[in-house]
Amino acid sequence: MDNAGYTTLTRQSGLLAEMQAVANNIANASTTGYRREGVIFSEFVAALGADDPSLSMATANVRDTRMEQGPLTQTGGSFDFAIEGDGFFMIEGPMGPMLTRAGSFTPNQAGELVTPDGFRLLDGGAAPIFVPPDAQIAVAADGTVSADGDPVGGLGLFLPADPNDIRHRDGVRFEVPGGTVPVIEGAVILQGFLENSNVDAVGEIARMIEIQRAYEQGQAFLEREDERIRGVLRTLGG
What is the 3-state secondary structure (H, E, C) of 13-43? Predict the structure, then answer.
């Protein structure tokens, strides 16, 4: 296979990966705190030999997570929190702390705020947040948590120490191997609100159509190239 064939095959593989990312975005268009994903195409060129042309191939193995603010929805829930601005909530994951923008929590049997699947929400010192049972809970814009008017803790907001050192664990959670830093200013916590997915469903559907057309064009090229090679072989064989 010549260089054009290799390039087209790797492009087809990348388009397939991008199609999967777009389909996942559409599926999570209504998921609280979800961050839209894409892929980044890159090219590498390898020398094959002194008398041979170089080999050019494209890959799409880098995931690109978009961090734009999603729209906010008012729920009125005492334990629903949204971040307006930069920053993430920190939760206690199975393999260590993780960051998230999904702000739906509830008290567990011990009175600790947890995610719907049981991961504990952490405060600015990376400790669990306890709320007294049957108390009236209020959260200030700076994250201070009060029960019946008395402060009992605070919601912590964090950012990766290195903006490029953040790994998508799933749709709403991220790992930060290089550690985090607290958000000092520029963010507001809203009680009784949730941040929606930042996916533009209409835009994603339009992108899916573009990817499908590009894939079909690549497939048509490969079929024509295959027929050309077969024709050359038949001529030489005849």
Answer: HHHHHHHHHHHHHHHCCCCCCCCCEEEEEEE
Q: Tokens standing for 15?
A: 């388009």
- What's the rounded Cα separation, in Å, for the pair 44 and 104? 43
Q: 């599926």: which residue's tokens?
A: 27
Measuring CA to CA, how many Å separate 64 from each of 37, 55, 152, 169, 204?
Answer: 6, 26, 38, 13, 15
Alpha carbon 235 to chain centroid distance?
Answer: 52
Q: Which residues contact 196 (CB under 8 A, 6 or more apart)?
A: 30, 32, 70, 71, 72, 73
> Can you tell me the distance from the alpha carbon of 82 to that of 102, in angstroms, rounded to the nearest whole number?
8
Read off the pTM.
0.79
Burial of 217 (0-12, 13-18, 19+ CB in 10 A): middle
Parse the chain into domains and list their residue ranges: 3-67+207-237, 72-195
Residue range 159-200, pLDDT digits in tens? 998 887 888 887 799 998 888 999 878 899 999 999 999 999
Number of Cβ within a 10 Å radius of residue 82? 27
